[in-house]
């Protein structure tokens, strides 16, 4: 073959495009960065009778996942600017722990989410059956449990059926974050691996815990598994429990649709979870196709006047006799009257949102009484918030939780610390904890997906003329 020959032209006249990617590896914290005396040892997976590892089974530092995968080759030079890449998650040939000396701690913090018990179960099973870790402890009631409660000894037999239960068997709470008490308790109990499961507030706390452990130069690996039913954690493809939440949200929408079409001028109003992002509302709208209007935090709306919600619903009721409105809990917060006594932050430091569902139901009733006095009208309001987040994870989320847990274990054993395990473009990666704690996965109202919502519902864009 002549290497200097020009590339062949396609039959339609297109010239092939070749390019090289300038990839920059995002470096993870590594135990030997501050504990250089640590010596690696061979992984026990080599002798584990469940495995028959080949060379391809193990990953190295050169196995990476590129964060950005979509480009316009006519306008973008892939070789000019660096493209972020992350270490790929999975087992390594060498580890920095003697498994028989590992004391692992697992804690769940913040609100509930489908799949919490699956993550706990798989952390226990993976540590025990893959690496032979003898001592695994559950921390009760969130961060405060480290210093105020006795830990629970966990084993494979105890957690056997936990994946079939909603909620968290370890219990959870918000607040209670006292950095020095937590790290002191970790030291005193002899934990040398800590697995933290929680959302954005929990992740911010995890960063502080890791930094304090780093300051004290302790041989303790810290890994986080991002939990938020809202799917608002950035960088990763999605957070666990999200698909289960969308599935359950559809059931609420179906009920609202039945209620609405069973009454003259009926409106079914459904409030779904989504404090700062509208992913559940958006995906439930697209999958149900019964929704007439989807209101999310990223797309401000208004009620009165041309192009407003009331005008749209007036037309929809005149045409169809009923309508279904889905609203994310964080939408419309700027329009709801807030008293001076209303709390601004919860114990985790997250904003406290007023009830947009109750407020909107009242506004709809006032609008109809004002503009259609004497005509029949009904609003049926459904708030499935706690039903959605407390259910057992579906099959997809259960599998996802398993892969997250095992990815975290492999990373900690390999000497990585201060990281989050999660999928990027369908492949599992390790991401620095401090980076993911400050990112948000917001709905892009300029992309094709939101345009699809608009075309399905035919709702206004709520942009004032």
Write the layout of secondary structure elements.
Layout: E1 23-25, H1 31-34, E2 41-42, E3 64-66, E4 83-87, E5 94-95, E6 103-108, H2 116-131, E7 135-139, H3 145-148, E8 152-154, H4 179-189, E9 193-198, H5 200-216, E10 221-226, H6 242-261, E11 266-272, H7 279-288, E12 293-295, H8 309-320, E13 322-328, H9 356-371, E14 378-382, H10 385-390, H11 395-413, E15 419-424, E16 427-432, H12 433-436, H13 448-457
Parallel strand pairs: 1-4, 6-7, 6-9, 9-10, 10-15, 11-13, 11-14, 12-13
Antiparallel strand pairs: 2-5, 3-4, 7-8, 15-16
Overall pLDDT metric: 92
> Could you describe the largest sheet, including whether it forms a barrel?
7 strands, mixed
Give the helix/strand class: alpha/beta
The sequence of SSEs as H and E is EHEEEEEHEHEHEHEHEHEHEHEHHEEHH
Shape: globular
End-to-end separation in angstroms reads 63 Å
Could you tell me the number of beta strands?
Answer: 16
Provide a count of the helices: 13
Helix content: 25-40%
Cross-sheet strand order for the largest sheet: 8-7-6-9-10-15-16
Radius of gyration: 25 Å
**Strand portion:** 15-25%
Poorly predicted parts: none
Task: Describe the model.
- There is one protein chain.
- The chain is 32% helix and 16% strand.
- A hairpin with a 2-residue loop joins strand 15 and strand 16.
- The termini are far apart.
- The protein has 13 helices and 16 strands.
- Helix 2 packs across helix 11, helix 4 packs across helix 5 and helix 6 crosses helix 7.
- The longest helix has 20 residues.
- The protein is globular.
- The protein has a 7-stranded mixed beta sheet with strand order 8-7-6-9-10-15-16, sandwiched between helices.
- It has 465 residues and is an alpha/beta fold.
- This is ATP-dependent 6-phosphofructokinase.
- It holds the Pfam family PFK.
- Keywords: Allosteric enzyme, ATP-binding, Cytoplasm, Glycolysis, Kinase, Magnesium, Metal-binding, Nucleotide-binding, Transferase.
- It catalyses: beta-D-fructose 6-phosphate + ATP = beta-D-fructose 1,6-bisphosphate + ADP + H(+).
- Catalyzes the phosphorylation of D-fructose 6-phosphate to fructose 1,6-bisphosphate by ATP, the first committing step of glycolysis.
């Amino acid at each position: 073959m002549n290497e200097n020959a020009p590339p062949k032209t396609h039959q339609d006249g297109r010239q092939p495009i070749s390019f090289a990617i300038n990839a920059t590896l995002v470096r993870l914290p590594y135990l030997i960065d501050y504990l250089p005396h640590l010596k690696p040892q061979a992984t026990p997976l080599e002798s584990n009778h469940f495995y028959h590892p080949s060379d391809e089974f193990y990953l190295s530092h050169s196995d990476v996942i590129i964060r950005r995968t979509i480009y316009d080759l006519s306008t973008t030079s892939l070789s000019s600017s660096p493209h972020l890449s992350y270490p790929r998650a999975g087992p390594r040939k060498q580890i920095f722990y003697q498994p028989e000396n590992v004391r692992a701690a697992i804690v769940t913090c913040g609100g509930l989410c489908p799949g919490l018990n699956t993550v706990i179960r798989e952390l226990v099973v993976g540590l025990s059956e893959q690496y032979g870790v003898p001592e695994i402890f559950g921390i009760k009631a969130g961060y405060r449990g480290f210093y105020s409660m006795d830990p629970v000894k966990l084993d494979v037999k105890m957690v056997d059926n936990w994946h079939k239960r909603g909620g968290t068997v370890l219990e959870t709470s918000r607040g209670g974050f006292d950095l020095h008490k937590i790290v002191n308790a970790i030291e005193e109990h002899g934990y040398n691996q800590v697995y933290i499961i929680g959302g954005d507030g929990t992740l911010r706390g995890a960063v502080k815990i890791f930094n304090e452990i780093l300051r004290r130069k302790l041989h303790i690996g810290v890994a986080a598994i991002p939990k938020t039913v809202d799917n608002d954690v950035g960088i990763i493809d999605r957070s666990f429990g999200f698909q289960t939440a969308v599935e359950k949200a559809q059931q609420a929408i179906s009920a609202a649709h039945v209620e609405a079409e069973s009454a003259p001028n009926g409106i079914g109003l459904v409030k779904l979870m989504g404090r700062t992002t509208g992913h559940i509302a958006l995906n439930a709208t697209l999958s149900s196709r019964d929704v007439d209007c989807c209101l999310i935090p990223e797309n401000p709306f208004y009620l009165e006047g041309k192009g407003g919600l009331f005008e749209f619903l007036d037309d929809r009721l005149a045409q169809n006799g009923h309508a279904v409105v889905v609203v994310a809990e964080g939408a419309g917060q700027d329009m709801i009257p807030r008293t001076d006594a209303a709390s601004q932050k919860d114990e985790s430091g997250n904003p406290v949102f007023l009830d947009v569902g109750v407020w909107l139901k009242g506004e709809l009733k006032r609008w109809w009484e004002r503009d259609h006095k004497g005509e029949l009208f009904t609003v049926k309001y459904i708030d499935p918030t706690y039903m959605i987040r407390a259910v057992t994870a579906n099959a997809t989320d259960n599998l996802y939780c398993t892969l997250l847990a095992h990815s975290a274990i492999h990373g900690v054993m390999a000497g990585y610390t201060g990281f989050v395990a999660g999928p990027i473009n369908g492949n599992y990666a390790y991401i620095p904890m401090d980076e993911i704690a400050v990112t948000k996965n917001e709905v892009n109202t300029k992309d094709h997906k939101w345009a699809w919502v608009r075309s399905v519902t035919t709702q206004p864009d709520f942009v004032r003329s």
